[in-house]
Amino acid sequence: MRDFNKWLKTMKDSIATYNFFTDFNKVYNNVDSIKVELNLLNSLIGSKNIRNDFLNLYKRYPEILKAIPILLAKRGNQIKLYEAGCEKTFNFDKPNYSAEEYADFMEYTKLFDLISNHIINNLIDYAIGVEVGMDTNARKNRTGDIMEDIVESYLLEAGFEKDVTYFKELNKTDIERKFGLDLSKISNDGKTEKRFDFVFIKDNHVYACECNFYNTGGSKLNETARSYKTLSLEAKDIPNFTFVWFTDGMGWNYAKHNLEETFDILETIYNLNDLESKNIVI
Q1: Domain boundaries, given as residue ranges, for the chain
Q2: What gap in Å lies between CA 31 and CA 28, rounded to an integer?
Q3: Where are the beta strands (DSSP E) in 120-194?
Q4: 189, pLDDT greater than 60
Q5: Measured distance CA(72)–CA(75) in Å, rounded
Q6: Among residues 188, 187, 205, which one has the least CA distance to residue 244?
Q7: Using an 8 Å Cβ cutoff, are 204 and 210 in contact?
Q8: What would the pLDDT profile of 122-133 be if each residue is shown by its tens digit?
């Protein structure tokens, strides 16, 4: 019988790889897509009459609006504003306000000040820096992807073959159709469509897996632990089916009580140390 506290102590504080920190290809591609517009806006740097110069530039090249959202670290081509009871949605792909109102936008958001007072020297360099900063928000997703890659490497090492004996991202309906199972117990009588990161089959038994890694705390961990506790209880009475959870990360120290409750009822919960030491019973 495994000891939860000893198991918790084997959690890792990081699984970062070299490409975890910043997706530079995405950064460069995003900036390249508005490079012409940024270069046009570069002509305004140091302007002594930036509002007038902006209006003249916009009259000749209205496409410069496409580059404005990224200067405010904003994705998409629309920005919604609410001020003094007035709600506005500026569209930077298909202009929906007058040139003067777009100039007001630039003034009130301090972009004119940023550009005209030499706070920056090149908007392309500035946009690259913004994109790098915004890309850090994607690290949580990359952590999940890395965890999945690690688990998949162990499946391959164990002799499983992709799309033959193991499958990525199958939902409940896919599993039922492919393996002839009834998973209504884990779908609230068909009202929800659960998706699993991996599904593999061994000795005519189907194993459905979830993978995640948490290096920080938060309410998400408690919700996940409770959800997987419920899922494991629901799956116990389904013939030829087992739920498996691969999880890791020091973040679990902040949600260990909920994790322990799941650990106590789910025999097939494993961390990376279990994979490394081949301490897997399946």
Answers
A1: 4-17+138-276, 24-137
A2: 5
A3: 166-171
A4: no
A5: 9
A6: 205
A7: no
A8: 999 999 999 999
> How many beta carbons lie within 10 A of that of residue 239, not counting itself?
8
The Cα 3–Cα 20 span in angstroms is: 32
Residue with tokens 């009202």, as numbered in its chain: 191
Assign residue 134 a region: left if phi > 0, alpha if psi is -120 to 50, beta otherwise? Answer: alpha
Contact 79, 69 (CB under 8 A): yes
Is the separation of the CB atoms in 222 and 185 below 8 Å? Answer: no
Per-residue confidence at 191, pLDDT binned at 50, 70, 90?
A: low
Encode 186-207: b = buried (16+ Cβ within 10 Å), e = exposed: bbeeeeeebebbbbbbeeeebb
Q: What is the mean pLDDT of residues 82-106?
A: 93
CA–CA distance from 198 to each of 8, 87, 173, 211, 274 (Å)?
23, 45, 14, 8, 18
**Chain segment 21-59, per-residue pLDDT in tens:** 899 999 999 999 999 999 999 999 999 999 999 999 999
Q: Which residue has the tokens 């916009």?
A: 58
- CB contact at 8 A, 44 and 71: no
Q: How many CA atoms lie within 13 A of 6 on its CB side?
A: 4
Angstrom distances, CA of residue 84 to CA of 95, 105, 124, 143, 189: 23, 15, 34, 42, 49
More confident residue, 17 or 222: 222
pLDDT of residue 66: 97
Domain range 4-17+138-276, its CATH number among 3.30.1380, 1.10.287, 3.40.1350, 3.10.450: 3.40.1350
Name the 3-class secondary structure at 277. coil
